[in-house]
Amino acid sequence: QVQLVESGGGLVQPGGSLRLSCAASGFRFSYYAMRWYRQAPGKERELVASINNSGGSTNYAESVKGRFTISRDNAKNTMYLQINNLIPEDTAVYYCFAVGLLWGQGTQVTVSS
Fold this sequence. Notes:
Blueprint: E1 3-7, E2 10-12, E3 18-25, E4 34-39, E5 46-51, E6 58-60, E7 68-73, E8 78-83, E9 92-98, E10 102-103, E11 107-111
Parallel strand pairs: 2-11
Antiparallel strand pairs: 1-3, 3-8, 4-5, 4-9, 5-6, 7-8, 9-10, 9-11
């Protein structure tokens, strides 16, 4: 079955950290560039980070630079998003996306004291 499954979301206090995971199955994960998006309530889905198929090139939205780190382990068919120094504005559903192929179902991140 071709799928992406996100995990690692939760409720975190401001200043905390999370590591999101996106586990891929059913396709050649190492062939695909990958992205993390997020969608806050009442807002459009926005791209936050992207990584090429080898992991050698990454890009970030200006709003998350210095706090978010995208990475991947092709041997484990998994992509990650390390989020540090969380702020309330990071509250959203986070989705992973295999470029040109499919979306995950999302994982909720809530930043609140």
